[in-house]
Specification:
Layout: H1 2-56, H2 58-71, H3 73-100
Helix pairs in contact: 2-3
Length: 109
């Protein structure tokens, strides 16, 4: 009986060493992915803070847009067209993702 316990203890020790080795290897392999995700998270946070600023300061954004429209009307039209195309594509893509069940549904209050 004691031999069986010793055998099990040795097996457990080998398994724990194997697990520790695998954890170390996984930690080393996941570093590039973690860095990429950190960059993506920062970009998303920046985008969200920009959207929040626009929502909370519509007058300032409108004034800046008006100044740009007066100073550079051609450029404003170009960017306006690009924004409209991007918005249209996003709406189409979002509809397809919703139909495919790949995009979470937002509850409206």
């Amino acid at each position: 009986m004691q031999n069986r316990q010793i055998e099990l203890a040795l097996k457990q020790g080998r398994l724990q060493e194997r697990i520790a080795t695998q954890r170390a290897a996984l930690a080393a392999q996941i570093k590039p992915v973690a860095e990429a995700l950190k960059t993506a998270d920062a970009a998303i946070a920046t985008g969200r803070s920009g959207i929040d600023y626009i929502k909370h300061h519509p007058g300032q954004v409108g004034a800046a847009f008006a100044v740009l429209a007066i100073l550079r009307p051609k450029r404003v039209w170009q960017w306006g067209r690009r924004a409209f195309v991007a918005w249209s594509l996003w709406r189409k893509l979002r509809g397809q993702l919703n139909r495919a069940g790949l995009m979470p549904q937002h509850k409206t209050a």
